[in-house]
Amino acid sequence: MANESLVPSTPLPRFAAVGAGRMGRGIAIAFAYAGHRISLIDLRQRSDEAWRHLRDEASAEIAGALAGLAQLGVIDAAQIQSIAARVHYVNAAAAPRALAAAELVFEGVPETMAAKREAFEQLNRHCRDDAILTSTTSSILVTQLAALVRLPERFLNMHWLNPAYVIPVVELSCHPGTDAGVLARTKALMEEIGKLPVVCGASPGYIVPRLQALVMNEAARMIEEGAATAEEIDKATRYGLGLRFAAIGVVEFIDFGGCDILHHASREMSASLSKERYTAPAIVDRMVEEGRLGLKTGSGFYDYQGRDVAAYRRDVLARTLGELRHAGLWRAAAEETRS
Fold first, then answer.
1. Which one of 200, 224, 240 terminates a domain?
2. Is the CB of residue 156 less than 8 Å from the CB of residue 200?
3. Is the pLDDT confidence value at 294 over 80?
4. pTM of the model
């Protein structure tokens, strides 16, 4: 049976995911996997039967996800039950007590302002003053949601990438009033469970969704135009684009090749494909004019002054070779053939 209650002497979990849907369940797995107990809270008033159905559904999905990890050798099958037991299922009646105990709360209710407003009314009422409140929204700006929070200095958005218990990056989006100490504490707590927090401002799309939407739309457009098949595009992105950017960051890659390369490529494609999609932003043109081309001039988006450039280039090559070996695509040097 799903873990729904604690013995009185057991402290309530320090962490709480509000909303027992797919994202809340993924977050619960991430914390349970890292050894932490977490409350998975449903704020909606339901009949006993409806609550049991939701609880059992969530419990089955979490157990299934852990079983999948076991099948892949990530965990031992004997660990599934103990990890799953760290997730505590909390209905609306018990929510105030669970919220009052949490130091870090993840709001993950449906993506409407009405639903968010209703959820934060309860969080404002029951969470303690030193709790950090976050929203996992993928579409509503942190500046909009901050107005719903009683202590907005303790609030920020936290965007998880699916599956939440696998992908290490979590995107932290702050509003101007987010306290620096709160941000630092949030980053530390996420690093404690093995996550890699990245910080961005109050901008639509965070970092990853904003970049990947452009790539996915362009892939669909190439199929539409007959430029390439889905299979060829996927082969090129998985073993070309994807492999490359698994080894080197996008901005790092601009500097590595040279900002002038991006400038000229953008000019050509804006003329031949689409001015709207491929015209370089003003910052690229400005950097080319100033001679800040990246690694080859000593400065670009990054500063390379005093850096061992030869060692850095070897490091990038080593990262790339590592990805090639992982993909099974690296071949040893062949003997000379006679033909």
1. 200
2. no
3. yes
4. 0.91
